[in-house]
Amino acid sequence: MLEVDSINTFYGLSHVLHDLSLKVDEGEAVAFLGRNGAGKSTTMKTVMGLLTPQSGKITMEGADITQAEAHTVSLAGISWIPEDRQVFTNLSVYENLKISRIPIDGAKNLDTHLDWIFSLFPRLKERINNKGNQLSGGEQQMLTMARGLGTEPKLIMVDEPTEGLMPAYVETIENVLVEIQKKGIAILLVEQNFRMALSITRRAYLIEKGVIQWEGASADLLEDQETRMRYLGV
Q: What's the structural domain count of the chain?
């Protein structure tokens, strides 16, 4: 489904991604792991059209999206859930979720969509009239993920969804990711909690200094402490 083929991405003169290749198949969950600054978020921004690679190719279901802008990438079926919890703080939970539906159907089928969202995040239903700035960090993360699902994506790229969250919220996010997979939605997951990431994904990539250093089965990496220590330090 998503294929990233030998991309090279720069920030100005700084060469960040070096001939990077990865793929995510239909309905597959893939962990994308590495230390801070390894190039994980840059990879997601490049796929999403926020950065343009100087070379290489990105395709989604066979369509070339290498030079596509972010809204075109979104309509192609890719959603990016960033690590910094980008919610509209002056809008209510309901309004945040409604806005996320507009590109799909003008929010005509919002109620049906919200039934599913609230089955994943019951807490958001309780907070439906609260503004974004009245939510806790964990609730804002839930809302960020819920908004990312508003476009009915075929693939979601999730960047550090449990960072800084209380254990109860971490468990909620993990359960939601599992439920999303059951819907047939593919996942590319960046996550510092490697045990959680590897336990809910089928394959994994390790990136260091913008280069893919390892790829294979998540279960194998979970058992391979030497490789984890080398590239993750854990």
A: 1
